[in-house]
């Protein structure tokens, strides 16, 4: 009976360890295009979005490369990661936060990719003067992986 309990505990511990550690070796690569097309009655017209803010990512708990940009086109705003690369982790999310510790934030959802160029649609009504920190956040461990400070808008 004692051996069965030990075996069950080992299986549980190995399962938990796999869940927590395995994302570190998974690279999810994505190369999304810039949001360029505007629909009109005559068809689709290509136009460059306006760059509203830009910042390089800075490492906190883990190394990171790339930049975060806020792009606007026809009233639609997009958060774009360019040349982005970070390690993976369990349940990473992208936050727009009012502070570097992610105490007050807007959750943009799970990370789409750990490498590449990625777009996140921003909800209308989000005050980018207040929520000007882009954070890669590990939900289970409450750890800030990296941050990009967009508090100095381009204009």
How does this model look, in words?
With 155 residues, the chain is mostly beta strands. It has one domain. Helices cover 13% and strands 47% of the residues. It has one helix and twelve strands. It has one helix spanning 2-21, and strands at residues 29-31, 37-40, 43-46, 50-56, 58-59, 64-73, 76-86, 92-97, 105-110, 115-121, 133-138, 143-149. The strands form three sheets. It has a five-stranded mixed sheet, with no helix packed on it. The protein is elongated, with a radius of gyration of 19 Å. The mean pLDDT is 87.
In short:
This protein has 155 residues and is mostly beta strands. The chain is built from 1 helix and 12 strands; from the N terminus they run αββββββββββββ.
Write the layout of secondary structure elements.
Layout: H1 2-21, E1 29-31, E2 37-40, E3 43-46, E4 50-56, E5 58-59, E6 64-73, E7 76-86, E8 92-97, E9 105-110, E10 115-121, E11 133-138, E12 143-149
Parallel strand pairs: 1-10
Antiparallel strand pairs: 2-3, 4-6, 5-12, 6-7, 7-10, 8-9, 8-11, 11-12
